[in-house]
Design goal:
Low-confidence stretches: none
Strand order of the largest sheet: 2-1-3-4-11-10-9-6-7
CATH superfamily: Class I glutamine amidotransferase (GATase) domain
CATH architecture: 3-Layer(aba) Sandwich
Largest sheet: 9 strands, mixed
Distance between the termini: 25 Å
Strand content: 25-35%
Number of strands: 11
Mean pLDDT: 96
Number of domains: 1
Amino acid sequence: MSDPRLRIGVLETGRPPAELAAHGDYPSMVASWLSPFNASFASYAVLDSELPDSPRDADLWVITGSRFAVYEDHPWISPAERFIRDCRDAGVRMIGICFGHQLIAQALGGKVEKSPKGWGVGIHEYRPGDWPAQLAPAPEALRMQAYHQDQVVVLPPGARRIAGSAFCENAVLWYPGFAYTVQGHPEFAKPFAHDLLEARRGSVLPDDLVDRALETLSGDTTRQQLARFLHDHRDAI
């Protein structure tokens, strides 16, 4: 049974490839990942220009991943950025995933660009650094699926980098009292990550990169631990 005292709103900024529809959409993946919250979930198709009426329509907002880039000229991106700023001003918490991580940074004055390092795919590990006392204890590492070319290259004012890697320095950002964002995809279960990589083999992704990424899928992720961590620290993010 859901807890009506906690409402999570999912801002849908992208959709999985049609051939992977059996895995569900991104809002359903987010709801599955955040099951420790035992919350009610509502989704808004932001990529179809559907936005909530007010930041207060949820207690916590989650912005999904997307195949789009935050710096592209889509009519729904600017209104989504305004909604992010409205949430910040209203003191309503947010979680950003991949595109959501980048969109929050851009909306608040950061910079996102396509990285010369290329694609980050498969399970990536991010090590804590400058971890805030408010979010203690720090994890030994965060391991999650990755699927991106773009990266946050300039942090917005007030953002803190709290975990990263040699490949993605700004992988986990904390906006005190507002948001916690990750470049990776903790909502991606391994079966979906596997099928996504295979679906993009030889077209978007070269074979050798897919092969290396698939090898990482035998390792563990910390997606469940991260969900529990966010649940326990939701008043501090």
